[in-house]
């Protein structure tokens, strides 16, 4: 089996024309993985490259794949993803993965950006203050989960749990979702990717499938994005994500 012309062209466009060491030690894997990831997968669906690169970066962070993330980060920056968008993706990931899983990727990204001559820190993207973060977070969260459900989440919280609901609104949504650099619709899509790629978050994945539907990321878009993740997160987590999509947004009887 040879690497197809399309796979080679896509690979070279993303990563340059260098030859991987695996081409010498594992040529068969390079051939069939390359044909799958850089020809068959890229030819499927209509996810624009910019969104796809952000989604793959999010998945690699959630998978803790530092080596592959460094390579993909270079490809993303070369092909139009901005340093601000990369940082905003990582900041968004903190709310869903925790700083313990994101810290090394922050350092990795800083190293890559510095090597490319990007001056750090980047311009600030925060739009809230300590006084406004809860209210702004409420507005963003309500768009995603629905105003009625958000009211219920807060009103039904037990006294010993209420602070967590308050933190969810003020911190997760107020500190993160309200930032500039990535729009709200894309942030919600990336949250879906982070949770699917992380694994073990099935209730939250279902919740963010519903949130994506409210934001306009329909069933077809979610499945197209999941399809782009297969080479990077494997089939089990992809299929778990697909099950969540099918549960929340089942296909129509016509087969849609």
Contiguous uncertain segments of 5+ residues: none
What kind of oligomer do you see?
single chain
Strand content: under 5%
Largest sheet: none
Helical fraction equals over 70%
What is the C-alpha radius of gyration, as a whole number of Å?
Answer: 19 Å
The average pLDDT value, as a whole number, equals 96
Structural class: mainly alpha
Separation of the first and last Cα atoms:
35 Å
The SSE string, one letter per element, is HHHHHHHHHHHHHH
Number of strands: 0
Quickly count the helices.
14
Which geometry do the CA atoms define? globular
Give a description of the structure.
There is one protein chain. This protein has 256 residues and is mostly helical. It has a domain at 129-177. Helix content is 72%, strand content 0%. It contains 14 helices and no strands. It has helices at 5-15, 22-25, 27-40, 49-62, 66-78, 83-97, 99-115, 133-145, 147-155, 162-177, 184-198, 202-215, 219-233, 235-248. Helix 6 packs antiparallel against helix 7 (99-115) and helix 8 packs across helix 9 (147-155). The longest helix has 17 residues, at 99-115. The two termini are 35 Å apart. The mean pLDDT is 96.
